[in-house]
Amino acid sequence: xxxxxxxxxxxxxxxxxxxxxxxxxxxxxxxxxxxxxxxxxxxxxxxxxxxxxxxxxxxxxxxxxxxxxxxxxxxxxxxxxxxxxxxxxxxxxxxxxxxxxxxxxxxxxxxxxxxxxxxxxxxxxxxxxxxxxxxxxxxxxxxxxxxxxxxxxxxxxxxxxxxxxxxxxxxxxxxxxxxxxxxxxxxxxxxxxxxxxxxxxxxxxxxxxxxxxxxxxxxxxxxxxxxxxxxxxxxxxxxxxxxxxxxxxxxxxxxxxxxxxxxxxxxxxxxxxxxxxxxxxxxxxxxxxxxxxxxxxxxxxxxxxxxxxxxxxxxxxxxxxxxxxxxxxxxxxxxxxxxxxxxxxxxxxxxxxxxxxxxxx
Length: 361
Known about the structure:
The chain has 361 residues and is an alpha+beta fold. It has three domains: 2-129, no CATH class; 152-203, no CATH class; 209-361, Heat Shock Protein 90 (2-Layer Sandwich), CATH 3.30.565. Helix content is 62%, strand content 12%. It is built from ten helices and seven strands. A five-stranded mixed β-sheet has the order 2-4-5-7-6. Helix 5 (153-169) packs antiparallel against helix 6 (177-203) and helix 7 (219-236) runs parallel beside helix 8 (256-273). The longest helix is centred in the N-terminal third of the chain and has 46 residues, at 52-97. It is rod-shaped and about 140 Å long. The protein starts with a helix and ends with a strand.
């Protein structure tokens, strides 16, 4: 009978069609058995005459045959149409309950159970997509928090250094009014940076959402501001910064805070690996601004040249807790948002060299 069912391609039938087919086949089988039971009863009657036990046996046999037919039909219907898809759905439910969505559900049937399995697979697939989206959002938020925590140190260090400088020399009247105003202006810019950081932490969900606000800026005050931040960073580790500029006296259209964030990351990395000195070179062109930071340290290894701008790549960082391997990756993303790029290389005389390119048109 199983071969007959397979021959009829029962998997292609709906549940109702399969039930009707099994019912008809079971009915024919039961009627055939009952017919044989009547033949047997007739033979017994002819042999033993009219006796009560023959009639009772016939009635019992007919009832048992009908009951057996119903049970057999139910068992066959369950095995052929319900057992396998229910097992698939049960196993899938257990996997989902265990937060395991890395699997697929398939069932080769065109009936309602096949449709149910297909719907369940669609649900699993959507759950997997949603879970991955949530995971990526959580990772982006974690990454951004690490970036903000790292990049808050520089403006805080600048504010602290300038405040100490004012406290030390202002009472003794060793500072000119111009110098005091210059220090206050620098502190004001870094306070604005802190405010922007705080606002961004509340509104940005991922690094790619960082907005770019371009404004006209003279290169001389911009590079002076960058040099001041670089000296503050280098002073903390007893290093020196030397800067140079090509085509200085011009006006460019940039996002000052993105430039500063990228620049300070590059300088922080350079100071970390430098033996004594970090060199900064600004090159201004018609449509781009390039900032190259070179140190006199050991330079990048072959592996680091390939992976330094990947997220969470640490290499041989002297203090793994100092940074989460995000510096150059952040610089790369921000440069690309600013219509530029990031290039990691070794200097001609050794030492690491990183060039940040920003679109200014």
